[in-house]
Write a structure and sequence with these properties.
224 residues; alpha+beta; D-Amino Acid Oxidase, Chain A, domain 2; three-stranded antiparallel β-sheet; 10 strands; 19% helix; 37% strand; globular; oxidoreductase activity, acting on paired donors, with incorporation or reduction of molecular oxygen, NAD(P)H as one donor, and incorporation of one atom of oxygen
Length: 224
């Protein structure tokens, strides 16, 4: 996690790099004064199972692949909520003391409660979770975010980066379109692989795509 870097490709010219994530040598005392812990990075896919296991041990219950449908009723001491199992489509009701809208700026929970969200949607992006051995590119110049900036790019992925999941063989590649108009783009797996190889700068590197998913970059917040 030593640096954030800007490159033509992982195998190509480096335009610049900055110390990041608590690694700048002349700020070492300030980092240690601010926190007794060193910076660490645990992606959600690694951290979430740890949190879930410990929460279950404390008595919590989790229902994955289940979505909020609507808030049905509120009494003085409980809320009744309708939820849906995504796989089966079955709906059922849950009674609870609290309903928490911790599901982002486009939250159906916040909508159901009439809580306004201020701000704007900035853009859409595509994340591609990959397995690829990039040790020879990154081990000599370690970094957590490696931005790829080159002119020979498709419009749906004008800027990209490699965000480390595990050094140096598992990554999330983030791909950002040229136009900030929120337009939906649907690259094929072949398009994605071609773009990944272009970002690496070596078309011989084996790449396994584990998943790909679109997400929304929001500059939004609920004020109250």
């Amino acid at each position: 996690m030593l640096h954030t870097s800007w490159l033509h490709s992982l195998a190509g010219e480096e335009y610049g790099r900055l110390y990041a994530w608590g690694n700048r040598p002349d700020r070492k005392g300030g980092y240690e004064n601010a926190s007794p812990c060193v910076m660490s990075d645990l992606p959600q896919s690694i951290l979430e199972p740890i949190l879930v296991d410990n929460a279950r041990a404390a008595g919590a219950e989790f229902r994955f692949a289940t979505e909020f449908v609507s808030q049905l009723a509120v009494s003085h001491d409980q809320i009744q909520t309708e939820v849906r199992e995504r796989a089966s489509g079955r709906t059922y009701k849950i009674r609870s003391r609290f309903l928490i809208g911790a599901d982002g700026a486009r939250s159906p929970v916040l909508d159901s409660l009439g809580i306004p969200v201020d701000g704007r949607q900035i853009n859409t992006a595509l994340h591609v979770h990959i397995k690829a051995d990039l040790t020879r590119f990154l081990d000599p110049r370690p970094g957590y975010l490696n931005w790829i900036l080159n002119p020979e790019v498709p419009q749906w992925s004008a800027v990209g980066n490699f965000r480390m999941v595990r050094p140096w063989d598992e990554f999330v590649a983030s791909m950002h379109p040229a136009e900030k108009d929120g337009r939906i783009f649907e690259p094929s797996e072949r398009n994605i692989l071609d773009r990944l190889h272009q970002m690496i700068g070596d078309y011989e590197v084996p790449i396994e795509i584990l998943s790909s998913f679109r997400w929304t970059i929001n500059d939004q917040v609920a004020q109250t």
